[in-house]
């Protein structure tokens, strides 16, 4: 009976023109791609309950020179973690953390990602970093140092920036395991007008999400990362992503995911969504609190199955 029902579902999907590489309302993409979907740790438990096929979590240790003793694993078994830490430049480059960091990465399972000083690779310094961290030459040295430190372990090191990569190429070291960006909806991705009904600085009515503009930014990032990395198809990770207000989210996540299905050499990707939790949930900005609308949850469940990654 279950096989019969499955066959009926497949037949209906084919009749409706919805394949494993075609989002509702979008043209079919050229090939299937694996995407690991997830969220930030603060909302991971609720996110994973609502999106059972998700398996990637973003964990932040934002206090300088404070690191976990063991690779974070409280998000659950078979969950892959992208860990962000902030070692200060002098201490890192003078080997003060070698033993501690090597002990940390030695406990990491497969598919573990590590980065330092996320969103430092950008021109406008959105997180307010100070001192030598904001020196691109020193920051590149730190990245190269970390890349060597994780060599031979199950951890892969990369850098996460934000904004157009081609305006911050000097902040990215070459030959890293992966490269990341934090990607949020803003007025630049609209076909006209500004974001409607938004609690953020975008308050006027109008504005339709433009897939062409979203893809143009992602195309530009890929071109810049090719130059930086020395690879034709560098591994790309989306460390944070969201759209606000809620009415934009279904198409935003669909457009970001479908770019990977027709670009970047069919390499597997990560998309970690970001949601405000606790005290930050009442603030505005480019994210928003979990949960979103029911339609967004349905779309995320659909996307995690279309772009599935089982190991």
Describe what this molecule looks like in 3D.
With 311 residues, the chain is α/β, with parallel strands linked by helices. It has helices spanning 2-15, 41-50, 89-93, 98-106, 136-150, 211-229, 249-262, 294-306; strands spanning 35-40, 56-60, 80-85, 112-116, 155-162, 178-184, 236-242, 269-273. Helix 6 links the parallel strand 6 and strand 7 (236-242). Helix 6 packs across helix 7 (249-262) and helix 7 packs parallel to helix 8 (294-306). The radius of gyration is 20 Å and the shape is globular.
CA radius of gyration: 20 Å
CATH architecture: Alpha-Beta Barrel
Low-confidence spans: 1-30, 199-205
How many beta-strand segments? Answer: 8
Going by CATH, the homologous superfamily would be: Glycosidases
* Count of spatially separate domains: 1
Topology:
Layout: H1 2-15, E1 35-40, H2 41-50, E2 56-60, E3 80-85, H3 89-93, H4 98-106, E4 112-116, H5 136-150, E5 155-162, E6 178-184, H6 211-229, E7 236-242, H7 249-262, E8 269-273, H8 294-306
Parallel strand pairs: 1-2, 1-8, 2-3, 3-4, 4-5, 5-6, 6-7, 7-8
Brief synopsis:
Helix content is 32%, strand content 16%. With 311 residues, it is an alpha/beta fold. The protein has an 8-stranded parallel beta barrel, surrounded by 4 helices.
Main features:
eight-stranded parallel beta barrel, disordered N terminus, TIM Barrel, single chain, globular, 8 helices, 311 residues, alpha/beta
